[in-house]
Amino acid sequence: ADSFFKALIDHFAKPTPASSSSSSSSSSGPSSNNVMSPPMTPSSSSSSSSAAGINVNWTPDDFLDYVNLAQDPYVVGMRFIELSGITPPAAHMIMPASLAMGMAPNPATSLPSSVQQDPAVPAASAASPPQNASSTLPTALLDTEVELLVRAHMCFVQACSVEGIRMVQAMVKSRVREYVRAGEFRLLVRLVTAMQSYHEMEYIFDILVKYERFELLLRRGGRGGGVGPTDTLKVALHSYLTRRLNKLHQGRAGGGEPPTTPEYQGLLSKLEMMFLRFGMHREIGESLQRQASLLVERQGDVSQGVNASGGPVVAVSQKVLAKNPQWRKDLLQAMQWYLDAADSFQKEKAVTTASHCIAQAALIGLQLRVPDTKFVNLTLQEARVLMMYRGTFRDTLIIAMAYGINRHDDWMGPVYQQALINGNLPFLEEFMRFFPSPYTSTTTNSASGPNCPYSVLFSELAKRYKSDANRHSRSTSFRKAMNSYLKDKFLAYEIAKDLTIQHNSTHWEEFLKDLIQSTPGLDYYKAGQAVAPAPGISSPFAGLMSPSSLPVPP
Hints:
Layout: H1 2-12, H2 17-25, H3 60-67, H4 73-84, H5 97-100, H6 139-158, H7 162-181, H8 185-195, H9 202-210, H10 231-250, H11 262-277, H12 281-297, H13 318-322, H14 325-347, H15 351-369, H16 380-389, H17 393-402, H18 408-421, H19 425-434, H20 455-466, H21 475-485, H22 489-503, H23 506-518, H24 522-526
Helix pairs in contact: 1-6, 3-6, 4-6, 6-7, 6-8, 7-8, 10-11, 12-14, 14-15, 15-17, 16-17, 16-18, 18-19, 22-23
């Protein structure tokens, strides 16, 4: 312990080359005797090693290998406490190392008494650190003192001494104000990251936040002892910041949206800075997604008017939106946040969440493109109604993906409404082009062979058509759709035959006749016979060899 202490004194008493040159070049300038070299990185250990091979930049593992040469790490830790010259608080006073070893204390080998707690300075308080004060202690002594406390803590951890660990933590708390008065916030970072007692030393986080020195916790490098990005530090900082943010949010009168106070926004920016520093892409995405969602929710009072009773959406007056220039600006900001969130989620391979953010950004783009209709902040029922009456497939697809109503059953209503009721066959065509596989049949007895395209789709449309009280007015659109897009002529025949018999419709009877005349071999299918087509005739019924392979009517 004494040898390591001497190495610390030699190391911190050595001024930097910059300070030496500045003091020699200008004797009339401010004194730089207390400006000492910053903590050295392990790469410079050769210059700081003593003749005995002691390196003050040892990592914790290397240092503990050195400490284990002694019989008891606890005794080494107590010796470091004595050398620091700090009197532990009475509540944490334990037997000194000199008494434990049967020897008398040696004041000549400890730090000067000026390093001890100044009686004129009250005990440190994390809630109210001093504002305008200056420390009278040299920087070298403060550096040495902190390093002795750190190494003593390591020794007590190695010795499994709970009393020793608590004593060091109490000594650190009694000295924090002195480090703040000296402006040595880097020493606070050294203490909290090297000891890694983040919960017990959370008051240091409070001080760093108050004095805008929080970024020191996120810097790389430092002397061996834990400074730098570690998993434990990352978890501790995340827990600390989120807890303070939640406390401010819950303590806000009325609750609701997060507060916009400078304190809240400052903590939020520090949380985002920590996410970026540690590469926490998922957390970055969640933060951006949350901000975008809250910003979009605030736009609900600007565009109103969706009729959830089943009718079409009531358009919003363009004049109302024109009077709110902030509306467009906020939506553009929310769109950018959603896109940035999607990029962060993509880096974490969270493809589903990234797709959801992209869908939300597309919905905001649709709202900006068509400001006279409300698309954002809809309920599921309102979104389903909007899908029914939005005549453009692209817009309907954006709504479906943004509100998570993109299943097979969710699409049958809009397709039937647009294609059969409104006669909007381009809607059906775009739908079939975009969804080529989920709406296909996987049976092998289809007339056109396995995986006949869109057999399931037209079977579902036929079911809806049968239960439609106004089906007579939809028959023309249905026949056109089957003629143009249904390649399974067997299925078309069965649908038309069923509708002719069930509803005694002359229109469907004529459709049957035209279908038989235009499809080679369909007359044999009608008679229940299966023959191979004549040579040279291209028929969709090639391979049909027996009546047992005929398709089952829907």
